[in-house]
Design goal:
The protein has 436 residues and is of the alpha+beta class. The protein is built from ten helices and 15 strands. The protein has a ten-stranded mixed sheet with strand order 6-13-7-8-12-9-11-10-14-15, sandwiched between helices. The chain binds zinc ion (2 copies). One zinc ion (ZN) binds next to helix 4.
Length: 436
């Protein structure tokens, strides 16, 4: 008897178990979109181990789906493994759905903090957008993660945004699988989210635009504590030797080098030699990259890294940094150094008094930085886990080595080629990185 082609083979089902950093990164909406584009039915849901996808449809479409899932995974996702198994023949569902999370123990990781993405940046500077100049905007592809997470599972109630109920507009985006903010736990807007303020030390928040006021203070040579992602920076105008010296004295910094932040890589010459190493500046961890000093380093940036032949440089990564540099770039001519090609150059050093741990809480900051900062530019989104800037030194062949693997890199694991014996390793005295 001739065997007819089995319909189950033609339109069979399979289950994919995806492991890695696949939760809280927009993974399920990506699966949902790809399945719909390939005409597949089924479902996707978070589980304790990762994400489970059930697919129904022609083998060719499922094959394309598997390929595209690896190629088009969202930017913050990291797929460690995909295990496929056939589903028993049965009734295929009518469409593709995102299902509620499964219960059970959670082993999936929290992803590291990410710099503001290109889509959010365009919203930040679009006067017609409801998040125009909003310092705490983010989406599933960017923003804080590790530093705002209190517990697993990664749901809004377990993050620093727990105290900020979503407004109807944000709620609509949060619940729409086609939206970039579908289940973006830290999403916020000026109506429902944290607020950016500027205040002089010991004073109430100043009225008016916080970013413009902070820039004025910096131009006047003041030390401004700026709240970012995993902590505060102490910022001063890097070209003002008096301000730099005052920061050094107040922070009890001795002759240790400061890192500087610039708007973009075009602002680097001629005081550093960007070279190949400058591409590390755009690494997703936006690290401080050590770059060789250029011919004018000592003239343009005196006292930043005395007696060293390198300067630590980093690019803006939090929306508030972009707002500051944008504000500086938008100044009318006649403001002296802001007219120079390099524009604004800021010393950005971790806001901890010499030798003490990072400062993260607003109240704690007011107390511990009372004798250091002249003013504060800060939002009221709590930092739940302090996280310093990562520091990277470039090596030949375009690779780099992390001297400090921190913001943007932790808590992601470093995969090893093979498992060795169990070892408990503990880091230094003040900044400890325990790992098992
Ligand atoms: Zn974004
Ligand atoms: Zn809102």
């Amino acid at each position: 008897m001739a065997v007819a082609p089995s319909p189950a083979r033609q339109t069979g089902g399979e289950r994919l178990r995806v492991t890695g950093l696949v939760q809280g990164v927009g993974f399920r909406p990506t699966v949902w979109r790809l399945a719909r584009e390939e005409g597949l039915a089924g479902s996707v849901r978070n589980t304790g181990e990762g994400v489970v996808v059930e697919l129904w449809g022609p083998e060719a479409a499922r094959e394309r789906f598997r390929r595209r899932l690896l190629a088009e995974a969202p930017p913050l996702a990291r797929i460690d493994g995909v295990a496929a198994e056939a589903l028993e023949a049965g009734e295929a569902p009518a469409d593709f759905r995102i299902e509620a999370s499964g219960r059970g123990p959670t082993t999936t990781g929290v992803v590291p903090d990410a710099p503001v993405c290109a889509d959010c940046l365009s919203e930040l500077f679009d006067p017609g957008n409801r998040r125009y100049r909003y310092a705490c905007l983010n989406c599933t592809h960017c923003g804080p993660r590790y530093t705002i997470t209190e517990a697993i599972p990664y749901d809004r109630a377990n993050t620093a945004l727990a105290g900020f109920p979503l407004c109807p507009a944000c709620r609509g985006e949060y619940e729409d699988p086609a939206d970039r903010r579908f289940h973006a736990q830290p999403t916020a807007c000026p109506r429902c989210g944290p607020t950016l303020i500027f205040r002089e030390a010991g004073a109430e928040p100043a009225p008016g635009d916080a970013v413009a006021a902070a820039l004025e203070a910096l131009i006047a040579g003041q030390i401004v504590a700026i709240k970012g992602i995993g902590g505060y920076h102490l910022a001063v105008d890097a070209r003002n030797p008096d301000a730099v010296a005052r920061l050094r004295g107040r922070k009890d910094r001795g002759g240790k080098p400061f890192a500087v932040m610039v708007a973009n890589t075009a602002s680097l010459a001629p005081w550093v030699v960007p070279g190949e190493a400058a591409r590390h500046l755009s690494d997703p961890s936006r690290p401080v990259v050590l770059l060789p000093k250029g011919s004018r380093a000592e003239t343009v940036l005196p006292g930043i890294a005395p007696d060293l032949d390198e300067i630590g440089v980093l690019l803006p990564y939090a929306p508030v940094h972009h707002l500051l540099f944008h504000e500086a770039a938008g100044r009318p001519t006649g403001t002296g150094w802001l007219d120079e090609p390099q524009g604004l150059v800021l010393v950005m050093t971790s806001a901890n008094p010499g030798g003490e741990p990072l400062v993260t809480g607003n109240a704690e900051v007011a107390e511990r930085l009372a004798d250091i900062a002249d003013a504060f530019l800060e939002h009221d989104r709590p930092i739940l886990v302090g996280c310093d800037d990562s520091v990277l030194r470039a090596r030949g062949e375009g690779s780099g080595v992390y001297l400090r693997r921190s913001r943007g890199r932790v808590p992601a694991a470093v995969p090893l080629p093979e498992a060795g014996p169990s070892v408990l390793a503990l880091g230094g005295w003040l900044k400890t990185a325990p790992c098992l």
